[in-house]
């Protein structure tokens, strides 16, 4: 390396190692927001309209449900909707009752849930033990089940 190369390295501007931006994955974000009228519906659509990465916005006023699809971050969508509308917005806490093993266990059954839905208690550590059957209950229910091949010998 010559003197000229050494001097040019000293005078050069260092390159910044920029990390490439991580692209968001295409996802569906479901939120619960109280929708009283058509004005609330328009306000929610207008709040999400200018957000970058959103493909579609669907609002179901009877279920108080807002569904957003696109290359977005769920937390940012919820935060923006909460800030622009001034309403309480939370992630959609309900699942179809067919998915939960014990849909009418304490904590899973919710009177405010839309018809055919119960609260998703398997993700909630406080309510999950109430919604799951104990090993003894499972043993007794499986012993007399039609799916158990040795249940005929017990009966």
Automatic annotation (TrEMBL):
Alphabetized SUPFAM superfamilies for the sequence: HMA, heavy metal-associated domain
MF terms (GO), sorted A to Z: metal ion binding
InterPro entries per the UniProt record, alphabetical: HMA_dom, HMA_dom_sf
The HMA domain, residue ranges: 26-100
Keywords: Metal-binding
The keyword Iron belongs to this UniProt entry's keyword annotation: no
Entry annotated with the keyword Zinc: no
Domain of life: Eukaryota
PANTHER family: COPPER TRANSPORT PROTEIN ATOX1-RELATED, HEAVY METAL-ASSOCIATED ISOPRENYLATED PLANT PROTEIN 27
Name used for this protein in its record: Heavy metal-associated isoprenylated plant protein 26-like
């Amino acid at each position: 390396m010559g003197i000229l190369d050494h001097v040019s390295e000293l005078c050069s501007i260092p390159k910044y190692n920029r990390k490439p931006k991580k692209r968001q994955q295409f996802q569906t974000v479901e939120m619960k927001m109280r929708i009283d009228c058509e004005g609330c519906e328009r306000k929610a659509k207008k709040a999400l309209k200018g957000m970058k990465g959103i493909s579609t916005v669907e609002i179901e006023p009877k279920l108080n449900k807002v569904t957003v699809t696109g290359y977005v971050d769920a937390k940012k969508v919820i935060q923006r909707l909460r800030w622009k509308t001034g309403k309480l917005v939370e992630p959609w806490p309900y699942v179809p009752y067919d998915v939960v093993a014990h849909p009418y266990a304490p904590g899973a059954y919710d009177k405010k849930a839309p018809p055919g839905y119960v609260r998703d208690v398997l993700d909630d550590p406080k309510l999950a033990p109430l919604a799951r059957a104990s090993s003894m209950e499972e043993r007794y229910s499986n012993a007399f089940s039609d799916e158990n091949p040795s249940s005929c010998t017990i009966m």
